[in-house]
Design goal:
Layout: E1 3-8, H1 10-26, E2 30-33, E3 39-43, E4 46-49, H2 57-70, E5 73-77, H3 85-96, E6 101-103, H4 110-113, E7 117-118, H5 122-131, H6 146-165, H7 172-188
Parallel strand pairs: 1-2, 1-5, 5-6, 6-7
Antiparallel strand pairs: 3-4
Helix pairs in contact: 6-7
Length: 191
C-alpha cells in the first residue's frame, strides 16, 4: 500500500493542499495526514483540520511527523515556492526518516531545494513511487491509537502472567517477557 503525507502552508496554500489530498485519493494513494484538510478550529495562528482528533498543537504536529515517517513519500505543496517554518521542519524530519520529498514546485529556499525532488505533477510522483516504493514503517500510537493500545494490553497481560506463574529461581522467562514488553512499548510510544 502506498501512503503519502502532505505538507505546506495552511495559511497560504490551503486550497492547493485540499486539491492535492483529493488527487492522491483519486490515484488510490492513502493520505495519512491530513486525511481531511478542512479547517475547523484554531489556536492563535495554528489551524486544526477535521482529521485532527485532538486540539493540541504538539500532539497534532507529533502525529503529522509520525505520518511522514510512516509514509512512502512526503508531498510538499508550495505553488509559489514559499515553504513556511513548520513545513521546513517537516521536510527535515522526512530527510531524517529517509522519506523522499516531492513537489511540483521548487522551493524558494536554496537549502530546501537540495532535498525536495521537483517533478511535474502528482501523477508523476505516484508513478515514480509505484516503481520505486519503499517499505513503510509500522504505524505508531499517534497514527492508529486503537491497534497499539490493544496490543499493549496483550503484552502487559503476558508479562503479568509471567510474573504470576514464575517459580523461585526461574527468571529467564520473566526477563525475556519483560524485555519484549519494554521494546514493544518503547517502539509504540516513541513520539
Amino acid at each position: 500500500m502506498l501512503t503519502v503525507t502532505v505538507s505546506g502552508s495552511f495559511h497560504r496554500h490551503l486550497a492547493a493542499i485540499y486539491m492535492a489530498v483529493g488527487e492522491f485519493r483519486e490515484a488510490g494513494i492513502t493520505v495519512l495526514s491530513p486525511s481531511d484538510p478542512r479547517v475547523i478550529d484554531h489556536i492563535g495562528e495554528f489551524l486544526f483540520v477535521a482529521s485532527d482528533r485532538v486540539r493540541s498543537i504538539r500532539l497534532v504536529q507529533d502525529r503529522h511527523l509520525q505520518c511522514i515517517g510512516a509514509s512512502t513519500f512526503l508531498w510538499l505543496v508550495a505553488p509559489d515556492g514559499y515553504v513556511g517554518p513548520s513545513a521546513a521542519m517537516e521536510i527535515g524530519f522526512a530527510i531524517s526518516a529517509k522519506t523522499p520529498v516531492f513537489s511540483s514546485n521548487t522551493p524558494d529556499d536554496c537549502t530546501l531545494r537540495q532535498y525536495v525532488k521537483t517533478i511535474p505533477s502528482i501523477k508523476h510522483a505516484v508513478s515514480r513511487v509505484r516503481t520505486h516504493s519503499r517499505t513503510t514503517h509500522t504505524p505508531n500510537l499517534l497514527i492508529d491509537p486503537a491497534g497499539p493500545i490493544r496490543e499493549s494490553f496483550i503484552h502487559l497481560d503476558r508479562l503479568n502472567n509471567s510474573f504470576s506463574n514464575a517459580h523461585i529461581g526461574e527468571t529467564s522467562r520473566v526477563e525475556s517477557e519483560l524485555q519484549t514488553t519494554k521494546q514493544f512499548l518503547t517502539d509504540v510510544f516513541d513520539f
